[in-house]
Hints:
By secondary structure, the protein is mainly alpha-helical. The chain has 2 domains: about 5-40, no CATH class; about 65-120, no CATH class. It has helices spanning about 5-10, 65-75, 80-85, 90-100, 100-105, 105-115; strands at about 10-15, 20, 65, 120. A two-stranded antiparallel sheet has the order 1-2. It has a two-stranded antiparallel ribbon with strand order 3-4. Strand 1 and strand 2 form a beta hairpin. Helix 2 (about 65-75) packs antiparallel against helix 6.
Amino acid sequence: MDQSSQQTERMKYCKHCGARIPEDAVICTSCGRQVETVRNESQPNVVIQNTNTNVNTGGRYGRPKNKWVAFFLCLFLGFIGAHKFYEEKTGMGILYLFTAGLFMIGSVVDLIALLFKPNPYYV
């Protein structure tokens, strides 16, 4: 085998311009474009296996409650915290029960707040 046939075997063609380039070339010497991907053996092979177990709730959290039921419970039985028990806020209901609706100030504030809530609202 002569030297010219060894060079021909070790040459390849650029996939962009068709020029003959060395077999181990990454960038074409004629057009300057990248012909092969660069392999860096020093970087580890990273495999990411993520599984998404989220369940979309539509942006709503909690259980729906009727605004008007809570409003009338607050209006008539706010001093014993009936609207808080309806919203399943037992701790606040007990507090309203022992403090007469936080001295009726809490009941009035809740009554006004319930007027501006959407129907149904989510607790």
